[in-house]
Amino acid sequence: MIMAKISIITVCFNSKATIENTIDSVLCQDYNSLEYIIIDGGSTDGTLDIIKKYEGKVSCVISEPDQGIYDAMNKGIKLATGAVIGILNSDDCFSDNHVVSIVANRFDSEDIDACYGDITYVDREVPSRRVRFWQAGGYQQDRLRDGWIMPHPAFFVRQEIYERYGVFNLNFKVAADYELMLRFLLKGIKMSYVNQSLINMKEGGHSSRN
Question: Cys staple from 115: which of 57, 135, 181, 192, with CB 3.0 to 4.6 Å?
């Protein structure tokens, strides 16, 4: 199997309480061709001190003011050099250390533009306690009328799709992830559903409401 580079982007701002677990969940992945980019919005709570402990292990760290989470994500996408890009929020973790390998295998074995999986919501104070489960299910176009969309934290897409159809629209302050994925779907991108949890998301985060 050709080891295509996969870029993982984490954006953060004053995320001292959670960023270390997020970083660890990326660095413990068993996939070797991995680029990890952290975009920080100018944290003042000690987040950067934690990130500095991983100097030499994180591919790129940028810390500067931004226009919000989606602006930071766009910065990361612009910097990414991988064939496939995933975005892991600063209070989320991969479900296990095989997630990126599973994603890479899906792109290697199928003619697809993107893949997505399920999300396990966990208690913010006790991350080992499962709160609920988002089973995304397979994509069918008529589900869009019912408000269905694949879960963005468990969404991985080829870099060329961003280049072709654009990045996050900053006019959407809260739902730019929804708009972006809907835009991709309406353009007819080819997707594959991974029928398992890829992300552990702490309940109450920026986009934890389904």
Answer: 192
Number of Cα atoms under 13 Å in the Cβ half of residue 39: 24
Q: What is the CA radius of gyration of the chain?
A: 16
pLDDT of 143 strictly over 90:
no
Decide if pLDDT at 205 tops 70: no
Percent of the chain with pLDDT over 90: 83
**By three-state DSSP, how is residue 15 classified?**
coil
Predicted TM-score of the model (pTM): 0.93
- CATH topology for 6-202? Spore Coat Polysaccharide Biosynthesis Protein SpsA; Chain A (3.90.550)
- The three-state secondary structure class of 178 is helix
